[in-house]
Amino acid sequence: MKTVMDEKKVVKAPRSEEQIKEKDSVYSIQNFNLWYGKDQALKDIKFEIPEKQVTAIIGPSGCGKSTFIKALNRMVEMVPIVKMSGDINYRGKNIFENKYKVEDLRTKVGMVFQKPNPFPKSIYENVVYGPKIHGIKNKKVLDEIVEKSLKGAALWEEVKDRLSENAYGLSGGQQQRLCIARCLAIEPDVILMDEPTSALDPISTLKVEELVQELKKDFSIIIVTHNMQQAARISDKTAFFLNGEVVEFSDTNQLFSNPTDKRTEDYITGRFG
Amino acid sequence: MQLVDQAKVKSKMQTRLAQNKILKGIFFGATMLALVVLVILLYRIFTQGIGYLNLEFFQNFASRFPEKAGIKAAFFGTLWMMAVIAPVALTIGVGTAIYLEEYAKKNKFTTFIQINISNLAGVPSIVFGLLGLTVFVRMLEMGRSVLAGGLTMSLLILPIIVVAAQEAVRSVPKELREASYAMGATKWQTIKKVVLPAAIPGILTGGILALSRAIGETAPLLMIGALTFVAYLPENFLSGFTVMPIQIFNWTSRPQTEFHDVAAAGIIVLLAMLLIMNSIAVLIRNKFSKRL
């Protein structure tokens, strides 16, 4: 899996020891708080995100689920008024430490956004964007990456004859899968998905959901969704967020069939939100 | 009970429609006035100048005799000056815009810079001429050269380029930047590979329009003392020079009426050049706005 990148020495993470120590968790979040100016958006978040599983984050609008997932790759820092406290450990290292470079973190933690956001370039150029910024120039290697990533995103068969066409010519669902392929191209460890199907039609949504099931064999996936059925269908673990707090975090089956908290039960039975 | 009195609605209807018609007429008149003025101006210039506009007009230098007077020195002087302005103003202008939009934190200092850039755009051009005379011609001892003139003009159009480039950079969708950052790209990689390619049509359009303003300006160059009677081409960036608007100004201030016709011919050349540049700007804008 990692051969292409390792050859070029792009993945610098010295994580052999931590990997053994915390084999089953990619993220460990401890007492994490986040404020937008004076408004506290996340309160005392505390849980562990397992490796090579799908972790769904559900909750009503404005509960902080998007903010949370954007904190995991520090994209939330693009909002200038953000303040944070507490730790988010990725593979045993606190990502907010000074010496932890955000470029390094985002090389290992890819992200797929709510709205498909391909670059106004060819399909090929979209996929090789990541590898190229990390210094891979060999045309043969890039070609292989494109094929592998597009196959990984279940898009290869649809676009293999028109790789040089502009990505804007693809349908919305294809664009989103292209964004997933673009994310796979840097061979990340974790993939964050922020409501990846909310702008897609039901058929495209189904394709992306099937893809997520496929991808969890190789990647740890964290997906924010406002669609509870989706969370129930595709995730192994589910965290229920409400007003910036984690109300409940457990196995998806457990959470949906037998929630321990009254508020979780009210939400999943559709009494609010 | 009916709250709306139908009779009143009916009686008002005529007045409302008439009012609409009258205002349409006024606005149409305003547009026509501008157009008519332009047409008269063009007509006068063309009938006056067309007789002098031939190949020799481009091949001859300035002369005491109207029939031998040509625009060669001024035409090439303008080109030389553009060769200074374009790289200087674009590099500094785009650099400033990128710094302000992408790197600088929004604080009091950057707000202060921003306000002053807008203020600079409103400073009369003769003031820039004074600055050029003091700094470039005297302090840096460039003399009355192409370089001094070009640098002065660069300063003059810098605020316009900065504002245009800022708008172009700002209009690049946030989602594209996010996509790049989320893959571990640095700020510069994102700017180079995502922001600039998307912003370049806007930057070029603004740049060309600013450049065409620079080649039409006269006052700053009169201030730094560009020559008015030149019978040679600039040899390097430190040569003396003249440009088209100054040559035209010189011709119109001569007592012989023939020279006024020569000036009209010069104006035609200058207008044609401006028109071509503006058309290129429009073409670039249309070509790229279709693609996205």
TrEMBL record, chain B:
PANTHER family from the UniProt entry: PHOSPHATE TRANSPORT SYSTEM PERMEASE PROTEIN PSTA, PHOSPHATE TRANSPORT SYSTEM PERMEASE PROTEIN PSTA-RELATED
Protein name, as recorded: Phosphate transport system permease protein PstA
ABC transmembrane type-1 domain mapped to chain residues: 75-281
Molecular-function GO term, any one: phosphate transmembrane transporter activity
Membrane spanning stretches: 21-46, 73-100, 120-140, 146-165, 194-215, 262-284
Pfam families, A to Z: BPD_transp_1
Gene Ontology BP annotations: phosphate ion transmembrane transport
CDD domains, alphabetized: TM_PBP2
